[in-house]
């Protein structure tokens, strides 16, 4: 279970990007975070995995506080948090299998990582997960030879190789065409159920949030102003979150601020 309490993130003397946010994610639920660009969605996810340092507040994963961790304790905690990025973050010159196995780097010795000598159990698990998402036949193919949807499936499997206790996805469909976007969202939904894994997705596409997630969290100006089931996400909620303008129905990336990019 993820428990966030009174989370604040401020850059310098500027107005906080996150303003005392409270959120709990548990079980195998798939939770989407929606809101206009600049609402704080990406900052929230990056605070959870400590790519961005929270200013104050508490973030607990299955009872373990994450905010004050440093050094090896922080590295170990990150093994428990899977992350899927908008830009895939694959190493193009490596094969699919090598990219997938990089999800085990936090579990093997420096020598094993340097020589890419992973235990057979890791290799077997990698093949099993790749078969599950339909990319096992690409195991020896370079990552830069794949389509966007295939690359994102590799990124999902890499995250699952960490054996995470929660999966975070930051605009996982923003770089994909509509059909592939739906396939990736459906895959995340299925994996959450199969693995009893909570999934937290930052997404612009409201239609997909309604279709593929169990719960929608709406943010505006660093605050949570809606938290409920998709069936309750009505026009009033849309107006409150997007300020009365038409909500986005197609994915579009949320540009990170320069400060946020530097922190990452």
Domains (count): 2
The end-to-end span amounts to 24 Å
Oligomer: single chain
Low-pLDDT sequence parts: 250-264
Biggest β-sheet strands, sense, barrel: 6 strands, mixed
In CATH terms, what is the fold-level topology of the largest domain? Rossmann fold
Keywords: ATP-binding, Cell inner membrane, Cell membrane, Hydrolase, Membrane, Nucleotide-binding, Translocase, Transport
Membrane topology: Peripheral membrane protein
GO molecular function, one term: ATP hydrolysis activity
Subcellular location: Cell inner membrane
Describe this structure in words.
It contains ten helices and ten strands. With 264 residues, it is of the alpha/beta class. It has helices at 41-48, 71-78, 96-101, 110-115, 120-133, 148-160, 178-195, 206-212, 235-242, 258-263, and strands at residues 2-9, 18-25, 30-34, 56-61, 64-65, 81-84, 166-170, 199-202, 215-220, 223-228. The strands form two sheets. It has a six-stranded mixed β-sheet with strand order 6-7-8-3-9-10, with helices on both faces. Strands 2-1-4-5 form a four-stranded antiparallel β-sheet, with helices on one face. The model is unreliable at 250-264 (pLDDT under 50). Helices cover 36% and strands 20% of the residues. One of its GO terms (molecular function) is ATP hydrolysis activity. Residues 243-264 are annotated as: Disordered. It comes from Marinobacter litoralis.
């Amino acid at each position: 279970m993820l428990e966030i309490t009174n989370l604040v993130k401020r850059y310098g003397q500027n107005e906080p990007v996150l303003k005392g946010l409270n959120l709990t994610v548990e079980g195998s639920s798939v939770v989407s975070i929606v809101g206009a660009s600049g609402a704080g969605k990406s900052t929230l996810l990056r605070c959870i995995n400590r790519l961005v340092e929270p200013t104050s507040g508490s973030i607990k994963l299955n009872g373990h506080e994450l905010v004050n961790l440093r050094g090896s304790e922080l590295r170990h905690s990150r093994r428990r948090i899977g992350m899927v990025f908008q830009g895939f973050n694959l190493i193009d010159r490596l094969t699919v299998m090598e990219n997938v196995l990089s999800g085990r780097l936090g579990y093997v010795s420096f020598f094993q990582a340097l020589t890419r000598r992973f235990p057979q159990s890791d290799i077997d698990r990698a093949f099993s997960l790749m078969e599950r998402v339909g990319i096992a036949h690409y195991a020896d193919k370079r990552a830069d030879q794949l389509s966007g949807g295939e690359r994102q499936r590799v990124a999902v499997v890499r995250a699952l190789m960490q054996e995470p206790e929660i999966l975070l996805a930051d605009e996982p469909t923003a770089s994909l065409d509509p059909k592939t976007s739906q396939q990736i969202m459906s895959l995340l939904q299925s994996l959450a159920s199969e693995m009893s894994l909570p999934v937290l997705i930052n997404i612009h596409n409201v239609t997909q949030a309604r279709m593929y997630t169990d719960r929608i969290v709406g943010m505006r100006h660093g605050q949570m102003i809606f938290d409920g089931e998709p069936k309750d996400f009505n026009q009033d909620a849309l107006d409150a979150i997007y300020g009365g303008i038409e909500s986005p129905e197609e994915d579009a990336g949320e540009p990170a601020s320069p400060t946020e990019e530097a922190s990452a």
